[in-house]
Write a structure and sequence with these properties.
four-stranded mixed sheet; globular; 127 residues
Length: 127
């Protein structure tokens, strides 16, 4: 028997803003809110426990530490990498420099709170 990732929790200065951003990126919907201000988003129609992990945006007043030790990689499902890059930038992502050479097959981006993530070239099937 093994475990699988059911949810990822990301501290956020503004959970509303990050929930809106990541919902747009992933096609997720709001699943619920907790009394502490946390917002859980996930795939429509399945939610927690489905084939994809949900994201919990948890409020914090703590300043973001240096570079996160974990980052998210995303892949387009219905368009090429260039078109997906344009879509992500329009949603509020911005290019991030983490020391890449410029010859990588992926783009390093940051969400509205500066959390780095990568847009991979490979397309994947929708879940």
């Amino acid at each position: 028997m093994a475990c699988r990732i059911s949810e990822l929790v990301l501290d956020a200065a503004d959970p509303e803003r990050l929930a809106a951003f990541w919902s747009g990126v992933l096609g997720y919907v709001e699943l619920g809110r907790e009394g502490d201000g946390s917002i859980e988003i996930g795939p429509p129609g399945t939610g927690f426990g489905g084939p994809q992990p949900t994201l919990v945006l948890s409020p914090t007043a703590d300043p973001r530490p240096a570079k996160l030790r974990l980052h998210i990689d995303v892949s387009a499902t219905d368009r090429d990498q260039d078109a997906e890059l344009e879509r992500l930038l329009a949603l509020g992502a911005r290019p991030a420099d983490v020391g890449q050479s410029g010859t990588e097959s992926w783009h390093v981006l940051a969400d509205p709170e500066g959390n780095e993530f990568c847009l991979l070239r490979a397309r994947v099937r929708p879940a």
